[in-house]
Specification:
Layout: E1 7-12, H1 18-27, E2 32-36, H2 37-41, H3 57-79, E3 83-87, H4 93-102, E4 108-113, H5 117-126, H6 139-146, E5 152-154, H7 161-170, H8 172-175, E6 176-177
Parallel strand pairs: 1-3, 1-4, 2-3, 4-5
Antiparallel strand pairs: 4-6
Helix pairs in contact: 1-7
Length: about 180
Protein backbone atom coordinates (compact mmCIF):
# COMPACT_ATOMS: atom_id res chain seq x y z
CA UNK A 1 0.00 0.00 0.00
CA UNK A 2 1.31 3.40 -0.94
CA UNK A 3 1.90 6.04 1.69
CA UNK A 4 -0.32 9.14 1.66
CA UNK A 5 1.67 12.25 2.51
CA UNK A 6 -0.35 15.03 4.16
CA UNK A 7 2.51 17.46 4.89
CA UNK A 8 4.64 18.73 2.02
CA UNK A 9 7.71 20.94 1.72
CA UNK A 10 8.21 22.39 -1.75
CA UNK A 11 11.53 24.08 -2.48
CA UNK A 12 13.76 25.23 -5.28
CA UNK A 13 15.68 28.29 -6.36
CA UNK A 14 13.83 31.56 -6.96
CA UNK A 15 11.82 31.17 -10.15
CA UNK A 16 11.46 27.39 -9.76
CA UNK A 17 7.68 27.62 -9.33
CA UNK A 18 7.41 26.86 -5.61
CA UNK A 19 4.44 29.09 -4.80
CA UNK A 20 2.40 28.26 -7.89
CA UNK A 21 3.03 24.53 -7.55
CA UNK A 22 2.35 24.56 -3.80
CA UNK A 23 -0.99 26.33 -4.17
CA UNK A 24 -2.04 23.88 -6.89
CA UNK A 25 -0.92 20.89 -4.81
CA UNK A 26 -2.85 22.09 -1.74
CA UNK A 27 -5.93 22.60 -3.90
CA UNK A 28 -5.90 18.89 -4.86
CA UNK A 29 -6.85 17.88 -1.32
CA UNK A 30 -10.43 18.04 -0.03
CA UNK A 31 -9.00 20.03 2.87
CA UNK A 32 -5.74 21.67 1.85
CA UNK A 33 -3.77 24.67 3.10
CA UNK A 34 -0.86 26.43 1.43
CA UNK A 35 1.62 28.19 3.73
CA UNK A 36 4.03 30.27 1.62
CA UNK A 37 7.26 31.20 3.38
CA UNK A 38 7.51 34.51 1.56
CA UNK A 39 4.15 35.61 3.01
CA UNK A 40 5.28 34.70 6.54
CA UNK A 41 8.62 36.45 5.92
CA UNK A 42 6.80 39.64 4.90
CA UNK A 43 4.90 39.74 8.21
CA UNK A 44 8.10 41.13 9.72
CA UNK A 45 7.94 44.82 8.84
CA UNK A 46 10.53 46.20 11.25
CA UNK A 47 13.92 44.80 12.13
CA UNK A 48 14.02 42.53 9.14
CA UNK A 49 16.11 42.13 6.09
CA UNK A 50 15.45 39.80 3.19
CA UNK A 51 17.04 36.36 3.48
CA UNK A 52 20.75 36.63 2.76
CA UNK A 53 22.77 33.60 1.66
CA UNK A 54 25.84 35.22 3.24
CA UNK A 55 24.12 36.61 6.33
CA UNK A 56 25.22 36.21 9.92
CA UNK A 57 23.16 34.87 12.84
CA UNK A 58 21.27 38.16 13.27
CA UNK A 59 20.48 38.34 9.55
CA UNK A 60 19.19 34.76 9.65
CA UNK A 61 16.82 35.34 12.60
CA UNK A 62 13.87 36.40 10.38
CA UNK A 63 14.35 33.27 8.28
CA UNK A 64 14.38 31.08 11.38
CA UNK A 65 11.21 32.80 12.62
CA UNK A 66 9.61 32.19 9.24
CA UNK A 67 10.39 28.46 9.35
CA UNK A 68 9.20 28.17 12.95
CA UNK A 69 5.93 29.96 12.17
CA UNK A 70 5.32 27.95 9.02
CA UNK A 71 5.64 24.82 11.15
CA UNK A 72 3.33 26.21 13.86
CA UNK A 73 0.69 26.93 11.23
CA UNK A 74 1.21 23.52 9.64
CA UNK A 75 0.66 21.74 12.96
CA UNK A 76 -2.46 23.82 13.59
CA UNK A 77 -3.97 23.01 10.18
CA UNK A 78 -2.95 19.33 10.46
CA UNK A 79 -4.67 19.06 13.85
CA UNK A 80 -7.92 19.95 12.05
CA UNK A 81 -7.40 17.39 9.31
CA UNK A 82 -5.92 19.59 6.59
CA UNK A 83 -3.16 18.54 4.24
CA UNK A 84 -0.54 21.29 4.28
CA UNK A 85 1.95 22.46 1.71
CA UNK A 86 4.76 24.76 2.82
CA UNK A 87 6.97 26.47 0.29
CA UNK A 88 10.25 28.23 0.92
CA UNK A 89 13.86 28.12 -0.19
CA UNK A 90 15.42 25.22 1.72
CA UNK A 91 19.04 25.56 0.70
CA UNK A 92 20.73 23.36 3.26
CA UNK A 93 20.46 20.05 5.07
CA UNK A 94 20.41 22.05 8.32
CA UNK A 95 17.34 24.04 7.23
CA UNK A 96 15.59 20.84 6.11
CA UNK A 97 16.36 19.28 9.49
CA UNK A 98 14.82 22.31 11.21
CA UNK A 99 11.52 21.59 9.42
CA UNK A 100 11.73 17.87 10.21
CA UNK A 101 12.46 18.54 13.90
CA UNK A 102 9.44 20.83 14.16
CA UNK A 103 7.11 18.46 12.27
CA UNK A 104 8.13 15.15 13.82
CA UNK A 105 4.89 13.17 14.01
CA UNK A 106 4.11 12.48 10.39
CA UNK A 107 5.65 11.63 7.07
CA UNK A 108 6.96 14.72 5.28
CA UNK A 109 7.14 14.90 1.51
CA UNK A 110 10.01 16.99 0.15
CA UNK A 111 9.76 18.20 -3.43
CA UNK A 112 12.72 19.97 -5.02
CA UNK A 113 11.74 21.79 -8.20
CA UNK A 114 14.72 21.96 -10.54
CA UNK A 115 13.96 23.76 -13.78
CA UNK A 116 16.99 24.79 -15.80
CA UNK A 117 18.64 28.00 -14.66
CA UNK A 118 17.51 29.66 -17.91
CA UNK A 119 13.86 28.77 -17.21
CA UNK A 120 14.17 29.97 -13.58
CA UNK A 121 15.70 33.26 -14.75
CA UNK A 122 12.88 33.81 -17.25
CA UNK A 123 10.26 33.13 -14.55
CA UNK A 124 12.13 35.34 -12.08
CA UNK A 125 12.02 38.26 -14.53
CA UNK A 126 8.22 37.96 -14.65
CA UNK A 127 7.76 38.30 -10.88
CA UNK A 128 6.53 41.62 -9.45
CA UNK A 129 9.54 41.86 -7.10
CA UNK A 130 11.77 40.81 -10.01
CA UNK A 131 15.29 39.48 -10.24
CA UNK A 132 15.49 37.74 -6.88
CA UNK A 133 17.53 34.93 -8.42
CA UNK A 134 20.56 37.16 -9.03
CA UNK A 135 21.40 37.31 -5.31
CA UNK A 136 21.04 33.55 -5.01
CA UNK A 137 23.02 32.41 -8.06
CA UNK A 138 25.11 29.91 -6.10
CA UNK A 139 22.06 28.37 -4.45
CA UNK A 140 21.35 25.98 -7.32
CA UNK A 141 24.58 24.02 -6.81
CA UNK A 142 24.42 24.31 -3.02
CA UNK A 143 20.94 22.77 -2.95
CA UNK A 144 22.03 19.96 -5.24
CA UNK A 145 24.91 19.20 -2.88
CA UNK A 146 23.14 19.74 0.44
CA UNK A 147 19.88 17.95 -0.37
CA UNK A 148 21.20 15.27 -2.74
CA UNK A 149 19.35 11.98 -2.40
CA UNK A 150 16.56 13.48 -0.29
CA UNK A 151 13.00 13.80 -1.52
CA UNK A 152 11.54 13.96 -5.01
CA UNK A 153 13.49 16.02 -7.55
CA UNK A 154 11.56 17.26 -10.57
CA UNK A 155 12.92 19.12 -13.58
CA UNK A 156 9.85 21.22 -14.30
CA UNK A 157 11.36 23.15 -17.22
CA UNK A 158 8.85 21.68 -19.68
CA UNK A 159 6.08 20.68 -17.26
CA UNK A 160 2.79 22.45 -16.69
CA UNK A 161 1.69 23.10 -13.12
CA UNK A 162 -0.94 20.34 -13.41
CA UNK A 163 1.64 17.86 -14.73
CA UNK A 164 4.00 18.80 -11.89
CA UNK A 165 1.30 18.21 -9.25
CA UNK A 166 0.37 14.91 -10.90
CA UNK A 167 4.02 13.82 -10.78
CA UNK A 168 4.27 14.78 -7.10
CA UNK A 169 1.15 12.84 -6.15
CA UNK A 170 2.21 9.85 -8.25
CA UNK A 171 5.61 9.64 -6.54
CA UNK A 172 4.73 10.27 -2.89
CA UNK A 173 6.82 7.37 -1.63
CA UNK A 174 9.94 8.83 -3.28
CA UNK A 175 9.26 12.23 -1.70
CA UNK A 176 9.20 11.07 1.94
CA UNK A 177 12.08 12.31 4.08
CA UNK A 178 12.86 11.65 7.72
Amino acid sequence: MSLVVRTWLVTGIPGAGKTTTSAALAARFTRGAHIPGDVIQHLIVGGSAPPDPFGDEEANLPTELCVRNQCLLARSFRSEGYAVVLDYVIGSAERLQSYLDQLPDEPIGLVVLTPTIEVARARDREKPDGLVLQAWATLNEEMRHELAGRGLWLDTSDMSVAATVNAILSHQDEAVVN
